[in-house]
Amino acid sequence: MARANTTNGNVATKLQLSPSAIKRGIERLKERITELASFDASEISDEGDAPKLLALSAAIEDTLVRCFGENTSAYYRFSPAVKLHFSPGVWTDNYPQKHHYIEGTRENILQSMCLLEEAQRTLREDLADYEHEVMSYPDAADKSGRPLSRKVFVVHGHDEGAREMVARFLERLGFQSIILHEQANQGRTVMEKVEAHADVSFAVVLLTADDEGYAKGGTPQPRARQNVLLELGYFLGRLGRDKVCALKRGTVEIPSDFAGVVWESMEGDSWKQALGRELEAAGHQIDWNKVMRTTVD
């Protein structure tokens, strides 16, 4: 049976599949549709039961989880396709009878087939999006051959000017800036929001002097906010050091644990060229004419 939707808003992001996995998902859905079309409703018992029907429901649910992930909005959109058994809702002396179960099951099967066809269409659109991105950026692909996302996560503190400057620069180069506070909360904690929007290929971390801190007995030093350092560590682990660029604005103490992280100063405009180089080294195509125009502007 289909899993009940959650009510706390804690829904996972859609499963990200490679092009080959999407094609296999489309074929699996086609197999389920064929099995539904060939099901003989006369196999249903007087109580509406049929072992083959139960097996079909389990196969459909497994296919949906493989295609869209478990506990995702896409899964829940198509999960009614799992409901094949007819439940009359009310019982009287003459209802339901076997033919009622047969007719109700046939209607459920028809609904399931329509939903699975719509699920196929969704995957075909995902595949078309990948193919379009490959044509637009033919050299931008990860090790699995899947096109690199043009989403870049911008980790920031309280310096709104630095945040907006970096976000607008990225957007002029054709990237989509993911800024955490601009995303819907949906009842999630900060780290749950970070994880939900972590389908990015690169992260820019802004180290700005928002806090002060010092070792016991020491002198207060300007520091980046703790959440910024936490998210810096998160993306270093998730993406790798070659896909994270740290930009430092002003005098900011760098924790010793991050001493191996390369950072660029935001003084002047040289950081734009540095960020462009890092993005290009990570596999993205960069329009250097746009980089230079933003530097001049």
Question: How do the helices and strands line up, and which of them pair or pack?
Answer:
Elements (H helix, E strand, L loop, with lengths): L18 H19 L13 H18 L4 H6 L19 H39 L14 E5 L4 H13 L3 E4 L10 H7 L5 E7 L2 E3 L7 E3 L2 H14 L4 E6 L13 E3 L4 H12 L6 H9 L1
Parallel strand pairs: 1-2, 1-3, 3-6, 6-7
Antiparallel strand pairs: 4-5
Helix pairs in contact: 1-2, 1-4, 8-9
Which structural class fits the helix and strand makeup?
alpha/beta
Weakly predicted, low-confidence segments:
1-9
Number of domains: 2
Our estimate of the beta-strand percent is 5-15%
Helix/strand order: HHHHEHEHEEEHEEHH
What's the total helix number?
9
Provide a descriptive summary of the structure in words.
This protein is of the alpha/beta class and 297 residues long. The protein folds into 2 domains: 19-136; 151-296, Toll/interleukin-1 receptor homology (TIR) domain (Rossmann fold, 3-Layer(aba) Sandwich). The chain has helices spanning 19-37, 51-68, 73-78, 98-136, 160-172, 190-196, 226-239, 270-281, 288-296, and strands at residues 151-155, 176-179, 202-208, 211-213, 221-223, 244-249, 263-265. The chain has a 5-stranded parallel β-sheet with strand order 2-1-3-6-7, sandwiched between helices. Strands 4-5 form a two-stranded antiparallel sheet. Helix 1 (19-37) packs antiparallel against helix 4 and helix 8 packs antiparallel against helix 9 (288-296). The longest helix is centred in the middle third of the chain and has 39 residues, at 98-136. It is elongated and about 85 Å long. Residues 1-9 have low confidence and may be disordered.
